[in-house]
Specification:
Blueprint lengths: L3 E6 L3 E5 L5 H7 L18 E11 L7 H5 L2 E3 L3 E11 L15 H10 L2 H4 L6 E7 L11 H10 L10 H13 L3 E9 L2 E9 L7 E7 L3 E8 L4 E9 L9 H8 L4 H24 L6 E8 L1 H7 L22 E2 H4 L8 E4 L9 H10 L8 E5 L5 E5 L4 E5 L21 E8 L2 E6 L7 E2 L1 H14 L15 E4 L2 E7 L10 E4 H24 L9 E5 L8 H6 L11 E5 L1 H11 L1 H13 E3 L6 H9 L12 H7 L11
Parallel strand pairs: 1-5, 9-12, 12-14, 15-24, 17-26, 18-20, 24-25
Antiparallel strand pairs: 1-2, 3-4, 3-5, 6-7, 7-8, 9-10, 10-11, 13-14, 15-16, 16-17, 18-19, 21-22, 22-23
Helix pairs in contact: 7-8, 11-15, 11-16, 13-17, 15-16
């Protein structure tokens, strides 16, 4: 078969493909990150490239304007090569190590200062190392080599843990070669201990674990010193699986195609391994010194991580392979740490509420509260937990990726250059971006600010419809749109806009979240005034303006003092699971205790959803602090402080 060369700039990456191959496939083969939130269906319009040279065939699409077509801009997923091609990538392709370290500022403060894990749970890491000086065998002490190790471990209150065959075969030579001075690594799992590793000499002070939050959009990992119980370093990157779609349903569908499951598994494992290598290099830690990994994520991500077919997660009656996972060999899942390392996965209650939410509940401590608390994890799936020490109910709302910057025209993730604040004063735009960098696009918290401001100004009505002729509004080929940042002020060199379609996507996302909260509370007969604390989990909440979120109806109109930003509690929970056996036991009890409410079978949910498709809500009386503003009166402060 004849092949043709496709070269992408910048970076001069070239791949050989057969004629008729779409450019999105070529980009993936070139290992170029692709912001294809629709999975290559041509509906998100985010994979635009400029054809610099060569012959291609491109399908017409409403996602490319006539002006863009005149410049040679096409959608990669709808464009097919006919010969040698040179194309320019138009989105940011740099690695995502810059993903807001601020994402964790509040998390680290919470974890390390306010509620350290050692104050909540006794330190008993997933793996422990013991340096043993063993007496050599003699005529008067001729017990077996393994008995000799067991006897020494008893001094550390570890009783005769089993040893695998591979380690048992090495034991006689290793003991004698090391002059009977060895370090033994013991893993604590499923209520028992097991020797997973024996080493010559004393390596007992070099024992590390990695806690991982396996998110649909981002992956975060912390290197943890298991000896001292300290988080050494945390890094974040994008989940490379997003090239096959931003939401879990798109990925499940892809997993059902040919080599799809293997592809998705490989992408997530390689993403995590790259972060682990980076953590180890920065901290001068050997990969063989990392003896365990704990992963927290939604059920789909965990199934893909373990290369388990996720197909049945989206088919009635929506049954996962497992909800509580046994201890596993990390190497079997593809982790590049010590070959004898162990893997634990946080368990969850259902197919659509996974271990990441169990970790959230663990980290917030709401499972201990006497008063009713609400946990909101505003992500692609929008999980919510309501309850206290006596009961916990949970649900999942398909909010979509709009608040994570996907599926919207100028959307981007929360990295440097993302608009996160927006206000108009005396006719002048006031923009705030992450890291004060030149504006490149809009992140989730920025969209909330923009919606609230457009509503305040009367640029949009309560149904989210743009008023033609209003300030900031112009007509485009696709209808009215609001210019947030003009091209001459944007770092991207292009207008940063919010379109009518974007607003409807955002309204659907916020309605799904608020309706899920309302339906969940109705299911147990709880009123908003009975909720003592509202925890906002995930990086989304770290820059969220409560007043603005209330004004668009994303959050309830209750006193602001009741809200708590918790940062990445899924990662915090995973750190706790690394460091404490009691935390692991508690997390399993939390998962078993949560009652899952299936909103798709709850008629009240759809009623609440349609009511929430307005700004802030159809029932405006639920938002008294906002009603004056949307009635044309001066803006009031939402809720007391």
């Amino acid at each position: 078969m004849a092949y043709v060369a496709v070269t992408f700039q910048p970076g001069e990456r070239t791949v050989a493909v057969s004629p008729g191959t779409d450019l999105l496939t070529a980009l993936i083969r070139a290992d170029i990150p692709v912001p294809s939130s629709c999975g290559g269906k041509g509906t998100c319009g985010r994979c635009k490239v400029r054809i610099l040279h060569g012959e291609v065939a491109t399908e017409p699409t409403g996602k490319v304007t006539p002006e863009e077509r005149a410049k040679g801009i096409v959608l990669a997923c709808r464009t097919f090569v006919r010969g040698t091609v040179v194309a320019q990538v138009l989105w940011e392709t740099r690695p995502a190590e810059e993903v807001a370290a601020r994402f964790f500022e509040k998390s680290e403060e919470f974890f390390a200062a306010r509620v350290p894990v050692r104050a909540r749970f006794p330190l008993l890491p997933l793996t422990r190392k013991f340096f043993l000086r063993l007496p050599p065998p003699s005529h008067t002490d001729s017990v077996s080599d393994l008995d000799r190790v067991w006897r020494a471990l008893q001094a550390h209150r570890v009783s005769a843990p089993p040893l695998g065959l591979a380690s048992l075969r090495k034991l006689p030579g290793l003991l004698r070669h090391s002059s009977w001075e060895v370090t033994v690594t013991v893993a604590e799992s499923d209520g028992r201990s097991e020797i997973i590793l024996t080493e010559t000499g004393d390596t007992s002070k070099k024992n590390y674990g990695v806690a991982v939050d396996v998110g649909t959009t981002t992956i975060a990992a912390s290197l943890v010193d298991l000896c001292g119980g300290n988080v050494v370093r945390t890094e974040v990157t994008f989940n490379r699986q997003s090239r096959y779609g931003d939401d879990i349903i798109s990925r499940i569908i892809h997993a059902e195609k040919g080599e799809g499951l293997e592809q998705l598994h490989h992408l997530v494992i390689e993403t995590i391994n790259e972060v682990i290598r980076s953590l180890a290099a920065h901290c001068r830690v050997g990969l063989d010194e990392i003896t365990c990994v704990v992963c927290s994520g939604n059920m789909t991500m965990i199934h893909l991580l373990l290369k388990i077919d996720p197909a049945f997660l989206r088919r009635e009656p929506y049954v996962p392979c497992a909800t509580l996972f046994p201890a596993l060999a990390a190497a079997d899942a593809g982790f590049k740490i010590n070959p004898s390392g162990v893997l634990r996965v946080a368990g969850g209650p259902s197919a659509y509420v996974g271990g990441d939410i169990s970790s959230d509940v663990l980290a917030t401590g709401m499972f201990r509260s006497r008063k009713t608390c609400l946990l909101i994890d505003v992500g692609t799936n929008g999980e919510i937990v309501l309850g206290n020490r006596d009961w916990l109910v949970c649900c999942s709302a398909s909010a979509g990726p709009a608040f994570e910057g996907s599926g919207v025209t100028s959307g981007m993730r929360a990295v440097a250059g993302a608009v996160q604040g927006f206000r108009v004063e005396k006719g002048r735009r006031k923009i705030a971006t992450i890291a004060d960098a030149p504006a490149q696009g809009i992140c989730g918290s920025g969209y909330i600010e923009i919606l609230a401001e457009l509503l305040r100004l009367g640029v949009i009505d309560r149904a989210g419809m743009i008023h033609s002729g209003a300030p900031l509004v112009r007509e485009s080929a696709f209808g009215p749109e609001c210019v947030v940042v003009p091209a001459d002020e944007a770092g991207s060199g292009a207008d940063i806009v919010i379109t009518q379609s974007d607003i409807q996507n955002l309204l659907r996302a916020k309605a799904a979240i608020y309706a899920a909260m309302s339906a969940l509370m109705k299911s147990v007969g709880t009123r908003w005034e009975q909720v003592e604390r509202v925890y906002i989990a995930g990086g989304f909440g770290t820059t969220l303006n409560i007043r603005r979120a209330v004004s668009i109806g994303l959050l309830p109109d209750i006193p602001a003092r009741k809200f708590r930003f918790m940062g990445n509690t899924s990662l915090l929970g995973a750190q706790a699971l690394l460091l404490s056996a009691r935390a692991r036991e508690t997390c399993e009890r939390i998962a078993a205790k949560m009652t899952y409410i299936d909103l798709s079978r709850d008629p009240a949910y759809m009623d609440e959803y349609f009511a929430a498709l307005f700004l802030p809500h159809t029932r405006i009386e639920q938002f008294p602090s906002v009603s004056r503003c949307v009635s044309g009166q001066p803006e009031q402060k939402a809720a007391d402080s």
